[in-house]
Amino acid sequence: MRAGLLVALLALTACAAPASFDGLAGGTKGDSKEDSTVEAPRPLSPVSVSLVASSRPRLKWALGATLSGAIVEMSRTRDFTKDVKRFEAKGTELVVPEDLELGVWFWRLKGTSAGTFGSAASVIWEMVVRGPAKNGSSDAPTRSMVDMNADGEPDLLIAGTVDDGSGPPGGELTPPGSSAAGGTPKPEAPTSPIVFFYPGDRESGFARGGKEGILGASQSPYDGPISIGGGTDFDGDGYTDMIEAGSYADLYEGKLWFGVSTTYASKSGEAAFDLERGGPLYLGQGANAPPSVREGADVDGDGYGDAVVGLEDVGFLVLGGLAKGMSMPAVMPIVPGMSGAPTGKSRIAMGSFDANGDGLADVAFSFTDEYEPSARAFAAAGDRAQRIREPKMIDAPDAKRATAFAAGDFNGDGIDDVAITTPVGTSTRICIWYGHREKLLTAGPCVAAASADLDFGASLTAVDLEGDGVDELLATAKTGDIEGVRVVRVSAEGATAQPIGVPGLGVRLTTIWPGRPGKARWAAVAADGSRVGIFEGADLKESLSPPPGTVRAFGRGLR
Questions:
Q1: How far apart are CA 281 and CA 221, in angstroms?
Q2: Which residues contact 381 (CB under 8 A, 6 or more apart)?
Q3: Which DSSP string corresponds to 44-94?
């Protein structure tokens, strides 16, 4: 089930410690003596591949019983050969005492104890130092990027379908309850979905490595629509891991089943994915619709990335770390079951944002009016003890259940805001909820779909297009038969939506590089599965087409 389609992965550069601490920025070793028996602290925050809206991030770690502090080593490269800095700190945290150059930084820890420092280093983590936003800053982590090979370059995950061409157009399987007759449709012939790994490169985009840049691929266990979450580190090894959801067919019984699986990054240098670990997550009784999955950051501050899963009647928190000694995260329900007739659709979920700036990831879920008549979604702050705090109900009661979420800093104050798409009447609208350090979220402006636009806000993502310190919201829309993208900008006067991008690209969106430093990079999928467009700012920079062979439904999953 976990067998993979693999192609060569560029070898990772070996990590080497500096020969001595002399001349490194941030201090010297003083009178301390090196001791090979001193253990390394375990890093806790920012969880690897997190973003920080400050030039001076706050780093946290856990100390062993004999340790008194840590030596923090930082570098612009994973092999610690460029711009290496060293800081010594007592206790379990450090706010970097100087402004860092904006961009990706790698960091690791060595222990200190009774006048000695260790030679053993912790695992290497990376973070995106974005610098202050236009109107504020936060030294706490939020959101993330995908970096499967941990080279400091943002990567892209694209799902497609490999089959013999006998399946349905577009390679999609219809979930139960959504057929025109109202019954359960029969599954089509089996297909073989693949998640392709495209490594990023600042100079050549995603074109390096041959075969349109593909350096790895993983066969998905699912036949039907795929939802991908990436940009989190479940096991704390410093590499991006992936969570995916979809459907698979039982041809003997004529049924569709739905599930969620985790896939870990490989550190071998020979493959992009580690197929010996991960696998399906147990979520109780069988789901009635394809689950919604999103990566999280770290909701409970334990130093492991988390994720969220939305099913039709319940939501789950997927907790990173090793559960009972196995290479699998633990799962806990966090949303009560709901009443009402089955809808054939799972509630949407979002993690990996921090709306109150406390350094713990928050989560959001949609729900139906049978559960809470006064709202269509809720957000809950992360909590070290309880995992999440009391939910805060959001969005207006005149709408239907929320259909899309995104998080970004839309007012430039340094902490995350939340965007929500909800159907209203026969149209849709997007509402902004501003992050707040005490109240978690406060209501902001809304923008409705233009009269000619359909499916406005079906897919959302946040980017800082110009790198000016304020994020914009990108939203899909359809005019006639043409898919497209709208950029939503928020100001004191309200919110506006204007066309951006290239007509024909816009059925699904994701952020590759958030912007700051520099312009944002983002991706948009063509409705016919023929290509994925890669944009920088507002400009189309390159187009990725399906790899040679029987690949279709290219972009059915995107992260």
A1: 12
A2: 355, 356, 358, 360, 362, 388, 389, 440
A3: EESPTTEEESSSS-EEEEE--TT--EEEEEEESSTTS-SS-EEEEEETTEE
Q: Omega before 185 cis (within 30°)?
A: no
- pTM of structure: 0.87
Q: Are 221 and 280 in contact (CB under 8 A)?
A: yes
Whether 225 and 232 have beta carbons less than 8 Å apart is answered as no
Measured at the CA of 277, the angle between CA 77 and CA 13, to 5 degrees, comes to: 20
Tokens of 14: 């070996």
Spatial separation of the C-alpha atoms in residues 366 and 380, rounded to whole Å: 12
E-strand ranges in 8-57 read 33-35, 42-45, 50-52
Nearest-angstrom CA–CA distance, 186 and 249: 9
**Residue keyed to tokens 């790899």:** 547
- Token pair, residue 19, equals 């020969």
Q: Rounded to 5 degrees, what angle do the CA atoms 47, 49, 53 make?
A: 85
Q: How far apart are CA 458 and CA 483, in angstroms?
A: 11
Per-residue pLDDT tens for 269-320?
667 788 788 888 877 666 667 788 888 889 999 999 999 988 877 778 888 8
Give the Cα separation of 348 and 368 in Å (integer). Answer: 11
Q: What are the residues facing 51 on neighbouring strands? A: 128, 142
Residue with tokens 């902490």: 415
Specify the DSSP class assigned to residue 15: P
Which is more confident, 14 or 365?
365
Residue among 307, 353, 361 nearest 331 (CA): 307
Rounded to whole angstroms, the Cα distance separating 77 from 13 reads 9
Which runs of E-coded beta strand occur in 136-240?
Answer: 141-144, 156-162, 192-198, 216-219, 227-232
